[in-house]
TrEMBL record:
Record-given protein name: SAP domain-containing protein
MF terms (GO), sorted A to Z: SUMO ligase activity; transcription coregulator activity
InterPro entries, sorted: PINIT_sf, SAP_dom, SAP_dom_sf
Protein origin, superkingdom: Eukaryota
Lineage start: Eukaryota, Metazoa, Chordata, Craniata, Vertebrata
Alphabetized SUPFAM superfamilies for the sequence: SAP domain
GO BP terms in the entry: protein sumoylation; regulation of transcription by RNA polymerase II
Cellular component, GO annotation: chromatin
Gene3D superfamilies xref list: PINIT domain, SAP domain
Domain SAP: 11-45
Length: 169
């Protein structure tokens, strides 16, 4: 009983798009306003849904409200389909529209061997200064730092560009 109340609370906190995904996954009509979708999803729970649907509810809830920082161990890897298991005509496409031998994965999931082989920006391009801090704001969560904050100090390239622009006008 406690789990059904927990699932009900999870469903009630989902957004419209997540409710549509859930109802589509359960094979129900996914069209309507939020209160209609919520009613359909709660009716699905009351009627008794399969464990797969319960797992989908938990997955959608966890995606919406992560409990902690996601580490590579906690991250559930997406199912990788080989080209032979895909229906004919479907292939995994790269950025340029051509087939790629493997799906694109985040750098952190490739492992340290592959991380080193990827081209990185030189640290000389972006000097790191410890005095620069980003201010926390209530409308976003910082998950990770991609590039360390830098000071807006002297930048000779920008200075030259500004000088050229001033000469043109």
């Amino acid at each position: 009983m406690a789990e059904s109340a927990e699932l009900k609370q999870m469903v009630m906190s989902l957004r419209v798009s997540e409710l549509q995904v859930l109802l589509g996954y359960a094979g129900r009509n996914k069209h309507g306003r939020k209160h209609e979708l919520l009613t359909k999803a709660l009716h699905l729970l009351k009627a008794g849904c399969s464990p797969a649907v319960q797992m989908k509810i938990k997955e959608l809830y966890r995606r919406r409200f992560p409990t902690k920082m996601v580490s590579p161990v906690d991250l559930a890897l997406p199912v990788v389909h080989s080209a032979s298991s895909l229906p004919t005509g479907l292939a995994q496409l790269g950025f340029d529209g051509h087939s790629s031998p493997s799906p694109l994965l985040p750098v952190s999931l490739l492992g340290p061997k592959h991380e080193l082989s990827l081209p990185h920006l030189s640290s000389a391009l972006h000097p790191v200064h410890p005095d620069v801090k980003l201010q926390r704001l209530p409308f976003y969560d910082v998950l990770d730092e991609l590039i360390k904050p830098t000071s807006l100090g002297e930048n000779k390239i920008i200075d030259k560009l500004d000088y050229k622009l001033q000469q043109d006008f």
